[in-house]
């Protein structure tokens, strides 16, 4: 069962695939909803609490992604290193992954990370030498918060975090999830 993550929980939601502001240029979801497995949700809440102690907030771009949306992204992206093959299920369709960034809690300003969310380019990778030092520090801060909370990361995308062994959960279609993002 997937559980919602909401702004009432202390997060900022910017569910990009419910808007045209994403790498496909068109909305993929009809509703801006963030859903996660209970285990992933608990880890995210732990990261939220630690971020708050540092004067930061978490902005969520994506969480559960139904298989239908995974296929839409697969067809939209040329560099397949940046989107999981839907035939293998991916981790977003399992409710075990979240895409996010950090905000300054006092100002609401997004911390610079060197590239935008879903930037399909080499500079999106953790530790890429072409990213400014301050942006690298922000990425390292996000990485530390998320790994301390129990998540694993994908080295090519600074914004992507998932449960370790996320593939132990089954991938889901939109029809399997009531109140899902489709």
Automatic annotation (TrEMBL):
It catalyses: D-alanyl-D-alanine + H2O = 2 D-alanine. GO terms for biological process: cell wall organization; proteolysis. InterPro entries: A_A_dipeptidase, Zn_M74/Hedgehog-like. This is D-alanyl-D-alanine dipeptidase. Zn(2+) binds at residues 92, 99, 160. The lineage of its organism: Bacteria, Pseudomonadati, Pseudomonadota, Alphaproteobacteria, Acetobacterales. Pfam families: Peptidase_M15. The record marks 65 as: Transition state stabilizer. Catalyzes hydrolysis of the D-alanyl-D-alanine dipeptide. Its cofactor is Zn(2+). Binds 1 zinc ion per subunit. One of its GO terms (molecular function) is zinc ion binding. Its EC number is 3.4.13.22. The gene is ddpX. Belongs to the peptidase M15D family. The active site is at residue 157. Keywords: Cell wall biogenesis/degradation, Dipeptidase, Hydrolase, Metal-binding, Metalloprotease, Protease, Zinc.
């Amino acid at each position: 069962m997937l559980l919602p993550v909401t702004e009432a929980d202390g997060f900022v939601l910017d569910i990009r695939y419910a808007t045209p502001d994403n790498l496909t240029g068109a909305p993929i979801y009809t509703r801006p909803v963030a859903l996660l497995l209970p285990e992933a949700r608990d880890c995210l809440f732990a990261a939220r609490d630690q971020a708050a102690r540092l004067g930061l907030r978490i902005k969520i771009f994506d969480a559960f992604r139904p298989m239908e949306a995974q296929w839409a992204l697969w067809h939209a992206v040329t560099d397949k290193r940046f989107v999981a093959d839907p035939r293998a299920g991916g981790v977003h369709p399992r409710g075990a992954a979240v895409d996010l960034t950090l905000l300054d809690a006092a100002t609401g300003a997004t911390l610079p990370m060197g590239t935008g969310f879903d930037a399909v380019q080499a500079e999106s990778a953790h530790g890429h030498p072409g990213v400014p030092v301050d942006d690298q520090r922000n990425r390292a801060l996000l990485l530390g918060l998320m790994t301390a909370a129990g998540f694993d990361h994908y080295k090519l995308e600074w914004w992507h975090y998932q449960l370790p062994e996320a593939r132990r959960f089954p991938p889901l279609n939109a029809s399997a999830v009531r109140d899902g993002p489709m």
